[in-house]
Amino acid sequence: MGNSLVHSTDGSRRPQPQIPVVVLAGFLGSGKTTLLNHLLHRSAGSRIGAIVNDFGAIEIDALAVAGALGDSTVSLGNGCLCCAVDASELDVYLAKLAAPEAGVDVIVIEASGLAEPQELVRMVLASEHPGIVYGGLVEVVDAAEFDDTRARHPEIDRHLALADLVVVNKVDRAADPERVLALAGSLTDRAAVVPTTYGRVDPEFLFDCRPSEERIGQLSFDDLHDHDDAHDADGLGAGGHAGHLHTGYDSLSFTSDVALDPRRLMRFLDSRPEGLYRIKGHVALGPNDTRNRYTMHAVGRFLRFYPEPWAPAEPRRTQLVLIGSGIDTEALGKELKGCESDAPHADEHGMWGVLRYVQGTEDEPGPEPRGDWLV
Fold it and tell me: Do 196 and 247 meet the contact criterion of CB atoms below 8 Å apart?
């Protein structure tokens, strides 16, 4: 699977951006549908393709339904699309939503409350569609019922270990939310863990929002605020909802006109800290590859590089954005600065670490090995 090429205005060929596919999982009642509806309301101009197992469960009362498109696909009033599928149909609908004419910017798969997220992740990674890329596994847990859920469903510990982002929802209803957050964090593989009420995760934490002034059929955040005060989409009422907490994120923008050393860069990526959820942008590797810049896509422990030719007049610089929760942006900036190298000659084997994460190269590992993901 590789990117399809498009011509830029300067005549150079660039890979067409792939659409991230985010898997949204969690047991019944955790708040997955609430979070998905929040993203649909707060898409900020981005067009979301939503794939859900339990289509009847998704609350579309506050969304203007423009009409059915056939084959269980519904167009929502904010320009988003929603599909009802079972696992066997997943690849068909991924292809439908990733088609250029659909104009989708991100695809969110809401798993059934009893689904195995590992299987959905496998299917996304196994897809041969060139227009998509894995966007991470988001596991939603109910803070108030976390202990009981673990007792009833011990497999949740395995789900958390696979997650790239853990959303601890309903923290306003938990007797000791800090304990639940710490416990959830201890069960992850360095995933970002964020507390929320009403599933209010900032969409920019999950995907790049495309600004748009056209808001047809979409509620403002103030409208959504009022709606959620009156009715909790989980059906439990708004009692105890204090402070209207919705989760933001920490971010770091790093720019350097000095080339990065590929060995140092890979050491940085291999040791990236807990809470660092996304890295996006491109890197200049100087004499190690004078022809290409390397676009980087990292989500959780998943990593991919895409080499693409520099445009003729383009400055040879690195530009990266790091997004996470509770990350030390100053320390990360210093670590990236330490990856700089003005060495005039290439390291003969220095690119091997980077090339392992370029699709289509020999011995490409795909995602970083994570136990039973790849069994």
Answer: yes
Report pLDDT for 361: 54
CA distance 138 to 141: 10
Specify whether the CB–CB gap between 339 and 260 falls below 8 A.
yes
Q: What is the pLDDT of residue 258?
A: 97
pLDDT digit string (tens) for 28-37? 889 988 898 8
Q: What is the 3-state secondary structure (H, E, C) of the chain?
A: CCCCEEECCCCCEEECCCEEEEEEECCCCCCHHHHHHHHHHCCCCCCEEEEECCHHHCCCCCCCEEEEEECCEEEECCCCEEEECCHHHHHHHHHHHHCHHHCCCEEEEECCCCCCHHHHHHHHHHCCCCCEEEEEEEEEEECCCHHHHHHHCCCHHHHHHHCCEEEEECHHHCCCHHHHHHHHHHCCCCCEEEECCCCCECHHHHCCCCCCCCCCCCCCHHHHHHHHHHCCCCCCCCCCCCCCCCECCEEEEEEECCCECHHHHHHHHHCCCCCEEEEEEEECCHHHCCCEEEEEEEECCEEEEEEEECCCCCCCCEEEEEEECCCCHHHHHHHHHCCECCCCCCCCCCCHHHHCCECCCCCCCCCCCCHHHCC
Closest CA to 244 of 230, 255, 258, 256: 230
Q: How far apart are CA 297 and CA 312, in angstroms?
A: 24
Contact status, residue 29 vs residue 234, Cβ threshold 8 Å: yes
Give the length of the chain. 375
In angstroms, the CA 149 to CA 12 distance is 53
The amino acid present at 330, given as its one-letter code, is E
Is the pTM higher than 0.90? The answer reads no
Whole-angstrom Cα distance, residue 375 to residue 369?
10
Give, rounded to a whole angstrom, the gap between the first and last alpha carbons of the chain.
21
Between CA 196 and CA 249 the distance in angstroms is 12
> Could you give the CA distance from residue 208 to residue 186 in angstroms, rounded to a whole number?
28
